[in-house]
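Aim 2, interim progress: modelling of the 1-deoxy-D-xylulose-5-phosphate-bound target.
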Amino acid sequence: MTKLSVNINKIATLRNARGGNNPNLLQVALDAETFGAEGITVHPRPDERHIRYDDVMMLKDKITTEFNIEGYPDKRYMEIIRIAKPAQATLVPDPPEALTSNTGWDTLRHADFLKDIIAELHDYGVRTSIFINPEAKYFEPAKNTGTDRVELYTEPYAGLYHRAREKAVAPYVEVALLAKELGLGLNAGHDLDLHNLRYLKQRIPFLDEVSIGHALVCDALYFGLENTIQMYRRQLEPDKKQ
Ligand SMILES: CC(=O)[C@@H](O)[C@H](O)COP(=O)(O)O
Ligand SMILES: NCC(=O)COP(=O)(O)O
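Predicted structure of the complex, ligand included:
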């Protein structure tokens, strides 16, 4: 079964826009869980453009599903993880000024760095996932870092989906099978939406988790949060046997 982790970054973006506490981030997170989210994902970026340090400290004891904290593993992030001890830490190679996450790790070049970070996170009892591009050369080195999972960076898939979905998904299917062979857990995320999610799930039925935020929050403006979460959950249901 593929779990849906709802990324609430954009709820925090809206809250920060007016400087108050509306929408109430904690309430949205708890409601999202009630509505069917099987995890809550946050990405406390260094500039706190959306999720703040205080948000993480507030959420950590209230989330009852899986808490997934994404980020670049600098001292600030590692301290957050040490204190929050989420179910999962998802490492991304984002520089502080990045508009959003836009690539996976070079697990060849950063092998030793990632190995040390992952060992520290395991000492905290936290499951690890590392953001990765769908290129086979990065997968065995990813396994050698000791990470529990990898997260497929799916923006390239989403970008090509509407024009050539078979071409878009092919590299992801190839590396997903490689990840499975290597014994790596498999997550996916970035720009997944109600158009492209089901096809990815059909072609990679053994996905452990998808984390979805931007498109889901945008859809919720039209369909409501509860209905939207249920719509995304339905995209992840196995196809009915014919
Ligand atoms: C890792 C990933 O692809 C997303 O969680 C990304 O971190 C979202 O960040 P923004 O919400 O700041 O675009
Ligand atoms: N790891 C991906 C994530 O958490 C959300 O990405 P997006 O759906 O906001 O693009």
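The chain has eleven helices and eight strands. The chain has a mean pLDDT of 97.
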